[in-house]
Amino acid sequence: MQPSFPSAHEAPALVPHQGRFSLLTEDGELLSLSAAEVRERLHAMPCPLVVHAPALARKLDLPPTGQPSPWLDLLELFTFVYPARPVAPTPRGLALALGLDEQNIDRAEADLLPNLLSILLGELARQARSGQIELLAAFTVRLGQAGWIWTGTVAETIDLHSRLTNNGRLAEEATQPADALRVWRHLPKWEESAQRPPPASHPISPAEARERLVNILGSDAEVRSGQADFASVSTEAFAPRTMRGDPAIVLAEAGTGTGKTLGYIAPASLWAERNDGAVWLSTYTRHLQRQIEQETKRLYPDPTTHRQKVVLRKGRENYLCLLNMEEAVNSAASRPAGITIALCMLARWALATADGDLFGGDLPGWFGDLFGHGNLAGVADRRGECIHGACAHYQRCFVEHSIRRAHDAALVIANHALVMTQAAYAQAGMSDDDEAGEQGNIPTRYVFDEGHHLADAADSAFSAELSGLETAELRRWLLGAEGRRSRARGLKRRLDDLVVGHPKLENPLDAALLAATALPAPGWSTRLAPEAANTPPPPEPMELNTLFPPEPPADQPIMENPTEAFLRLLRQQAMARAAEGGKQSIHTAMECDLHPLVPDMAEAGQQLARALSRIVEPLRTLSERLQARLEEDADTLDTTTRGRIEAMTRALRRRAISRLDAWITMLAALDQPPEPGSTPAHIHFIRLERRDKQRMNEQDVGLYRHWLDPTIPFAGIMAMPAQGMLMTSATLRDQQGGGTESDEAETAWEAAEARTGANHFPSPALRASLASPFDYARQTRAFIVTDVDNSSLVDLSAAFRTLFQSSGGGGLGLFTAISRLRGVYDRIAPTLEEEGLPIYAQHVDAMDNNTLVDIFRTEEHACLLGTDAMRDGVDVPGNALRLVVFERVPWPRPDILHRERRIHLSGGDPKGFDDRIARLRLRQAFGRLIRRQSDRGVFVLLDRRTPTRLLSAFPNGVAVERCGLAQTARQITAFLAEQAGQN
Ligand code: SF4
Prior knowledge:
Belongs to the helicase family. DinG subfamily. The protein is of the alpha/beta class. A 7-stranded parallel sheet has the order 8-9-7-10-15-6-16, sandwiched between helices. Strands 19-20-18-21-22-17-23 form a 7-stranded parallel sheet, with helices on both faces.
C-alpha cells in the first residue's frame, strides 16, 4: 500500500454555491470565492472534500479529474459504503439519502460536507464490526495499492492496521485483495427448475379487478373512479382468445393522474395468479421500467415475494458479464490504476446488487462519470460474445439468472424494444432465451404502457443499417481482434471445441472467416474519404476500449475491400446530394435519397452483395450442421454441450446470418428505384454522420432501410403469440379542434389505432378513455410569448433567464436542437447560479439523463435544460417542477423518413399530419407539469408563430394567453405566489 494518504478528517470542503464556491478551510473558516480564487488556493491547500469531482472541475474550468481522483469525493466513499444505492449526486441529494434534516441541508454550504463524512464513516465502522471486515479489509488494501485517495481514512475507520502482518500484508488465512475482486466466487448459483406449463385461459371480471385494486391501495385509500374504471376495462385484454392470430386489444387513453399503472397491475396480477402465467408489462424507457417496478411493491410489499413475482428484464447488454469482469480483473495489474479502482467498486456493487443491471438499476447513474464509462461498457455483455454453457460463470450469470427468474414470475417488466426483438427472435427460432421457444414460456398477455411510443420503438426495432460501424462490428465478431490486444475472441475461438475434429463444421467456418475479410478492416473510417483510402489505421480512442487499448497497428498496406469501396460511394453520394443549407460540418448529419445512384454504385453494390453471400452461405451451412449434430449425436452429447450448440446456432443466426441477409436484400434495392406514384413498403436512404462511438473528426456512412409504417411488422410478430394486449398512454389521441364532435372523435381514435398498430389486427380494438382527475384550469397557466425572436440566441437566452427567474427556479427548458440548448446554457448559467438557481443541462453536464432528473427532483430551485428525452420521460411531482418552457413548436424533423411518411401515411393531408405530431408532443410536454392534485405549474411557448390550431393540444379549460415576455414573467410570479399561499 502507498505510505501516505490524506486524512479526510482535517480536509477542507468545497462546493459550488450561488454562482461562486463555498470553501470551508482547514481552519474552519467559511468563505465564498470565485472560480479564479479557488483555482489559486487549490495549489496550496490540502485536497478538499467535494461531491462529484468531475462536475466541480468543469465548473472551475479545470481539466477532468480522472482516477485516482485528486480530491476526496464523498460520492466515491458513498459508493464504497453503500455500493448498490443510487443517490442524486449533489450535497443535498447525498444529505437526504443519509437521512439529514431538510432544514439543516437548506442552510448549509461547504460546512455540510464534514457532517456527511461523519455519517458515512460511522456506517463503515458499523459494517466493519458486523462481520464484513474481511472483505472490507481486502478491498481497502487493493484500493490502496491503486492509489485510491480515500484509503487512509477508510483504513483508519475499519482499523485495517490491526489486521496487517509485519510486512504490511493481510494474514495468509484472510481474504486476499485479489480474491475480493473475484466476485464470481462469492455470488450464489441459480438452479434450474422444471419448465412452467402453459398458462390457463380463465378470464377475470371487472368486479374482481376493481376489488384487487382496492386491496392494493389499502382499505383506507380513496379509490379514484377513473382508476377503477381503467382497471375494469383493462380486463377485456385478458379475455380468452377466440381466433388464432386475433388477440383481444384494448386501446385505453388514461389522462395524467388517473393512476393507470396500478390500474393495469390489478387485472394483470389477478390474471397471472389465476392462470399461473406471466403478464409482460412493457414501457418505453429503462427509467420507466424502474418506475413500474416501484409500483409493484405496493402489490407485493414483502421483498421476498416481490422478487419471486416481479422480474425486470432488459437486453443482455445492460448486465454485468462475469466473464468480462474476470478478464478485466486478470489484466488490471498491467493497466492504469484507475481501472483497478473502478473494478473494486464494481466488485463491491456486484456483491450487493439485486440483479446485476449496470445501466439504470441499482448502480448509480453517475458511476461512469466518476470511474469511467469505458470501464462500465467493458464489463457489460455488449459484444455478443457470450459463450453460454461453456462459461465458467454460467450458473452465477446475472443475465441468465434474470431470464430464468422471468420464467416463473407473475409480472415481467420489460421495454418495447426488448418485447419486439424477443417476439421477432422467438418467431424466427433464435431467441436469447433457451426456453422461449417452448410453449409455456412464450408470453401471451401484454400491457404496453407509453403506447404512443410503440411506432417509434417499432421503427428502431425493424429498421436495418448497412453502415461502416455495423459491418466493422460484424467483422470483429467473426474474426476477433485480428492481432490487436483485445478481448474480442472471434468466432473460431468461441466455437473451438465444438468444431475441432469435425471437418464438416471446420470447413464452412474457415470459408466464412476467410470471406469476412471483405468487411471493413480496422481504421476503415479514416479511409472513407477517397483521398485517404490507403491510410493505415490509427489507434482506436481510449474511451472505446479503456480496459484493453489496442496495440499500435501493423504497418501494412490495406487491401481494397468491397465494403469499404461501397461505403466510399455512399459517402460521395451523400456529400453531393445532401441539403446542408450551407452549414456542413463534421457534426452535421447529412442525408440523401438512395436513388438515383451515382456512377459505379450499382456495380459496387453487386460486388458487395456477392462478397456478403460468400460469408453468409458457409455460415448458414455451419449453423445447419451444428443443429444437425444435436440430432445425430443426441445420445452422446452432454447437457452443457447441447446448450452451447443451441446458443451458438442462435447467435450465428441473430448476429450474422439475419444481418447479412438483410444487407443483401438492401443491396438488391439498388436496382429497384421506387416507382413514381406507388406506395413503397420500405424507405431507403443514405446518412453520413459522426456517431457516438467515433472520434471527433470521424464519420460513419450507411445505407438505411426503414418500414414506411413500422407498426406493420410489429403487428406481424405480435399477432400469433399475443392472446391479449392492453395499449395505454396519457396521450394516445390528438384533439384537433374544429369539425363535428363525433367526426373529430372518430378521426382521433383512428389516428391512435394507426399510431399503435391496433388497426393491423383482425378484430377492432376496444376503445376507452379516462379523463385526468386534475383541474387544469385551476392548476395551470399557459402562455405564448409574442415579443421574443427565438431565432436569436441572445433573445432566446434572455427569455429563458427571465422566465426561470420569475418562477424562482423549478423550470424545465425544452429544446429542439442541441446547439441552441448549449448556447442558451452558456449565456444564462452564470446569472442564475449567482441567484441561487442551479442549472443543469443534458449534453452539457457529463451525466446521464436519469441522474440529471434525479438532481432536478431533489434540488427544489434548480432548472434543467433538455431535449426530446426530457419531454417524454420526466416524472417530477411537487414544486421542483413548476414551469415548462418550450423554445419553439416541436415540429417533426424534416428528414427523408418524415417526408415519405407525410406523403404516404397522412391520408392526403400532410400539413394535418405534421400538426398532429406537434400537438401530441406539446401534450406530452404539458403533461410533465402536473403530476398530482396539489401541483401547480405554468407552460410557456417561446414561439410567436405558434398556430392557433395547435392549441387544442392543451387540456380543456386551459386558456392560452398570448403576451409579451415581461407580462408573462409577472403573471408567472403572481400565479405561483398565489398558489403557494393557497397550499
Ligand atoms: S454466461 Fe455469457 S453473459 Fe453470462 S457471464 Fe458467461 S459469458 Fe458473460
